[in-house]
Amino acid sequence: MNIHSGKHIDTGEPQNNQSPFYQREHETHEVLNQAGDLANYNAYTSDQALQEAISVFDGGWATARLKACGGLVGSERVQHLARAANRNEPELRTHDRFGHRIDQVEFHPAYHELMDMVFSSETHSLAWTEKRIGGHVARAALSYLWNQGENGICCPMGMTFASVGALRHDPALAAEWEPLIMRAGYDSRPIHARDKSAITVGMAMTEKQGGSDLRKTQSTARPAGSRTGSGADYLITGHKWFFSVPMSDVFLTLAQTENGVSCFLAPGWLPDGSRNNLRIQRLKEKCGNRSNASSEVEFKDLHAVMVGPEGRGIRTIIEMAHYTRLDFAVGSSGLMRQALVQALHHTSSRTSFGERIIDQPVMANVAADLAVESEAQMWLGMRLACTLDHQDTSEHERLLSRIATPMAKYWSCKQAPMFVVEALECHGGNGFIEDHLMARLYREAPLNGIWEGTGNIICLDVVRAVQREPATVDAVMEEIRQGLSDDPGLAVHADDLEKRLRRLPDNQGEARHTVEVMAHTLQASLLRRYAPAAVSDAFLASRLNGHWGRAFGTLPGGMDTRAIIERARVQA
Questions:
Q1: Taking a C-beta distance cutoff of 8 angstroms, is the pair 437, 342 a contact?
Q2: Which residue pairs, CB below 8 angstroms and at least 24 apart, start in 197-200?
Q3: Which of 105, 332, 384, 437 could join 416 in a cystine, given CB atoms 3.0 to 4.6 angstroms apart?
Q4: d(CA 380, CA 413)
């Protein structure tokens, strides 16, 4: 892995504030009772629950790789790079200094170094290159870890991973492009993809008039020659309201043909080295995810190749969206894990009223409640990654993936903002300062809930799963009852959920509530099977049995908060 460890990166930190003059003239007090940074820890080996999930779901063969990634993610180096990449945002360069149109985006060196790290660790490809059980689980764990390091690089990584699902609709295209996609490493040069040592894949679907309604696509595609259909060359003219990662080497997009919305693969640069016929209109000024570039673009005879059947483009590209939705669920749980360990570090290192903050009963309740939520989200994401390892050989796993992946995307992404706010509050005012990691997590937390379908769109996808494949209900109920059926009191919750799901197509206004109940019930089943009693008991008593308030920190009395906290905390 090429980490460029010797390169100096301007992190914005003062370089020499401990000079004798500074000490003599400006020191008025000794700094006491500050937690300091949590750095140079291993994000994998310090996460007991994640290690157990990897073992349960057959990913243990990747332990050495996950340990290496965990050490990198928890390093001071990555923290400094992430801070620099977010403070020095990408800039659009429409023309070079001679007046030639180039449509390039310039990134800070820290961003390129982080991209090299995440792609060199094969977070984008491991599920496809390791053709064994546990491949998707191990790759999801890498994504979970890197979302604790820097979220901006996880967008291009996740899209590159997911692109394989769409490309396999055309075996010839898949055979052509998959070897390039699978390469480890990162090559930032603006040249044709086939001339690069490694490539990234993007996606540009949404348009300003349609948003999530992809049938409203107005971009049009016409054949570039006499051949039509999948694998044929087309020219696309139109616009895209959101094109994330416009510097992708190739990207998937949608356009109308005579037979309806179709899917296309377009290179960012043409074989002669010139930019494909896209014009970047502007970069989005986003609330968070600032290290990553998102843009609006116009196409004028963009060179592209059709992927999959003509007129079935939405169905083709949804294969990609299914993978990205799971990655957003896993990513949000990774972000929550980072927020949790920061809160536990601060409250364990700082004292108030004569004792550590974490030892005060009210804070212990908050910390334990956050730890329970974090672990429940992690188990959910890893179980659904496991379905991808078996979906081609098990109808149960395929059906479970179909209904529970959008559920996980909805619920993990919905919980992340509330979770991060509570974790930030554990720091007091320290967490609300921009040079603190928590401020960046706070701005990042809502994003995954918006990308790849907002909450309503995702819940309606669950409705569609029930409508089109009623057996998906049987699959998720079978999974849930594995952990709850031995207790009559808990079995009642499963029975109630099944009734809700069966009537969901006729009661779509209840979709959000039903999806939330499904998430809680499946998480309860997973925790009861795989987590310690302290964690599962607290989850059941609060989330399933109703003894929970409307904020974190409202676990019922009698919970073993100390055991829960110690399980979740990064050990010194």
A1: yes
A2: 198/119, 199/160, 199/249, 199/250, 200/115, 200/119, 200/156, 200/159, 200/160, 200/245, 200/247, 200/248, 200/249
A3: 332
A4: 13
Residue 22: what pLDDT?
Answer: 52
Spatial neighbors of 401 by CB under 8 A, at least 6 apart, are: 322, 384, 387, 388, 391
**The amino acid at 111:** Y
Q: What is the pLDDT of residue 20?
A: 55
The span from the CA of 369 to the CA of 554, in Å, is: 7
CA distance 20 to 18: 7
Phi/psi for 43 (5° steps) reads -70, -15
Contact indicator for 56, 78 with CB cutoff of 8 Å: no
Beta strands 260-267; 278-283: pairing state: unpaired
List CB contacts of 255: < 8 A, sequence separation 6 or more.
217, 219, 220, 221, 234, 236, 238, 261, 262, 264, 304, 313
How many CB atoms are closer than 10 A to CB 468? 10
Residue ranges with strand state E in 331-445: 351-352, 355-356
- Find the angle CA(442)-CA(451)-CA(151) to the nearest 5 degrees: 45
Q: Give tens-digit pLDDT for 164-209.
A: 999 999 999 999 999 999 999 999 999 999 999 999 999 999 999 8
Rounded to whole angstroms, the Cα distance separating 520 from 525 reads 9
Eight-class DSSP state of 40? S
Tokens of 510: 């209840």
Average pLDDT over residues 149-177: 96
d(CA 513, CA 151): 29
Task: Quickly list DSSP for 127-171.
Answer: HHHS-STTHHHHHHHHHHHHTTT-GGGHHHHHHHHHHHHHHTTSH
The first and second tokens of residue 441, run together, are 């997590």
SS3 267: strand
* Axis crossing angle, helix 437-444 with helix 395-425, rounded to the nearest 10: 130
**CA–centroid distance for 125 within its chain:** 15
What stretches of 260-310 adopt beta strand conformation (E)? 260-267, 278-283, 294-307
The model's pTM is 0.94
Question: Based on C-alpha coordinates, what's the Rg of the chain?
Answer: 24
What backbone phi and psi angles, to 5 degrees, belong to 267? Answer: -80, 150
Distance CA 396, CA 386 (A): 12
Asked if residue 237 lies in contact with residue 482, where contact means CB atoms within 8 angstroms, the answer is: no
